[in-house]
Amino acid sequence: AQKVTQAQTEISVVEKEDVTLDCVYETRDTTYYLFWYKQPPSGELVFLIRRNSFDEQNEISGRYSWNFQKSTSSFNFTITASQVVDSAVYFCALSESGFRNAGGTSYGKLTFGQGTILTVHP
Amino acid sequence: DTGVSQNPRHKITKRGQNVTFRCDPISEHNRLYWYRQTLGQGPEFLTYFQNEAQLEKSRLLSDRFSAERPKGSFSTLEIQRTEQGDSAMYLCASSRGLVGTGELFFGEGSRLTVL
Asked: Distances in Å between the alpha carbon of B38 and those of A2, A5, B84, B111?
């Protein structure tokens, strides 16, 4: 069975601090996909990034960066110079690669972690 | 691109009543998903459609739950004989098939409260 663990329930920082959100996953699949989503107070989940299991290249996008380490089954997310607008719940998620339909690979069945509530204070 | 739309946004009902939620996905998306999210938890997968075909259902989806997507466009999720444990946020998401970018577009959810 797949499992995603976000050990940090809540994190509170002051604006401009850097913050790292941890994610550890378990899967028996050799091919899988990892995601980060953001859920602001409005409730709508917003896609941030997708990574597949054979691409361990880390990525930086503006103030966001991701560190994928297959050896430790971790997919951590860092916000540099945090801002108040970054306050939200952040979810890490894992996707099965097990079913394919009509030539496409489905990434839609996601297993989410419990989320980390990030509060950035001014 | 008007986004994924869900109605109603909030529903309060008494135990034993039936409720129905509607989801309108992004128009060119042929894949539609339902998730359930309880307070303090991450979303849990319920079911998935490709066009009008329901291809997978979670064990979380008991016999009291039924989902349809009759013409491959909007979808409904019906809960019969609601129980207090059904209280949750019901999230709908859609994505493009075949290309498979992995990005699900979520609606704002329908919050159900069962008294």
From this structure: 19, 17, 12, 10
A45 in Cβ contact with B43 (< 8 Å): yes
Mean pLDDT of A89-95: 94
pLDDT-based confidence at B59, cuts 50/70/90? confident
Residues A49/A59, Cβ–Cβ less than 8 Å: yes
Yes or no, beta carbons of A35 and B100 under 8 Å apart = no
**What is the structure's pLDDT at A61?**
82
Q: Report how far residue B53's alpha carbon sits from residue B68's, in angstroms, rounded to the nearest whole number.
A: 9
Q: What is the DSSP letter of A15?
A: T
Q: How far is the C-alpha of A54 from the C-alpha of A74, rounded, in Å?
A: 14
Question: CA B22, CA B73: separation in Å to the nearest integer?
Answer: 11
Distance of residue B21 Cα from the nearest chain A Cα, in angstroms: 16
Please give the pLDDT value at position B1. 53
- The yes-or-no verdict on residue B100 having pLDDT over 60 is no
